[in-house]
Amino acid sequence: MIHLVKQDDLDWDKWDAAVRKDPSGHFYALHWYLDMIAQRWDALVYGDYQWVMPLVHNKKWGVIPYLYRPYGVQQLGIFGKEPVTEDITGAFIKAIPRKYVHRDLYFNVDNPFPANIKHRMRRTYELSLAQSYQDIYNGYSESINRKLKKAKKAQLRIFENDTPDTLILLFKKNKGKQVDFTDWHYDRMRQIMYTLIYRKMGAVWTVHDERNSPCASCFIAFTGKRMVFLFSGQDAYGRDHGAMTMLIDNALMWGAERGGVFDFEGSDIPGLERFYQSFGATMREYANYRQL
Fold first, then answer.
1. Can you give the pTM of this predicted structure?
2. What dihedral do alpha carbons 34, 40, 43, 49 form, nearest 10°?
3. Domains of the chain, first to last
4. CA atoms lying within 13 Å on the CB side of residue 107
5. What is the rounded distance in angstroms from the CA atom of residue 238 to the CA atom of residue 154?
6. Dihedral angle at the C-alpha atoms of 52, 202, 209, 139, nearest 10 degrees?
7. Residue 117's closest CA among 93, 83, 88?
8. Per-residue pLDDT tens digits for 187-240
9. Percent of the chain with pLDDT over 70
């Protein structure tokens, strides 16, 4: 029932239909998005596209084929209109071609993972948007309320349709030295953001200080089922005056009662975990299957 299909032989209409009908609402596995972020990818397909699983691949040292998670994606795994079971996940793993001895795959939060297959669980945080903004606000911690008061006192202002270049420059100036990013990473993220904006699936929101200088910025991607906090940056002033908290609060206000979830897209980092939890977000786990 599960067969390998080469990238060029896939039925794009059936593929995207399977991804769009998946309850998770992830856009990462849509064929045009994978084409943009992955050099080559093939797929495992169950039946007539009942479930699908992308296999993004490359070669180490030009000779050893391996599977990996490309930059610009948090979760991939199995997608389809019907719920995935542990047996289905296990069957897809068993169907991976043996030539891929090296594997580093990230499944999604709706893919139950078999206990008998070695893996580790990663954490992410989500907040339901099937509620009013007032209910969301009532779930904020005291620290979030304090930061919102700081932002209001500083008279910060939000610009809802800024350019990806503004965000990238802010990130590079303030966090760029702390991460192992090259020009390739920035160019790829710029391409991702502009493509999603063109497809009306995302926007850059920026906070400006009293001098009208950007002090915090984020890119929010959205589908009908999910808003994704995809990329962000801020400077010291923004951090000290609650600018990013103000941005997220604004996004939650915009998304309230639309249904689906706000996806913070992380994190295993304790400080970020506490920050996301303080908005009332719920921790969810997804499997990282590694065979290196």
1. 0.92
2. 50
3. 2-117 (3.40.630), 125-284 (3.40.630.30)
4. 26
5. 10
6. -60
7. 93
8. 999 999 999 999 999 999 999 998 889 999 999 999 889 999 999 999 999 999
9. 100
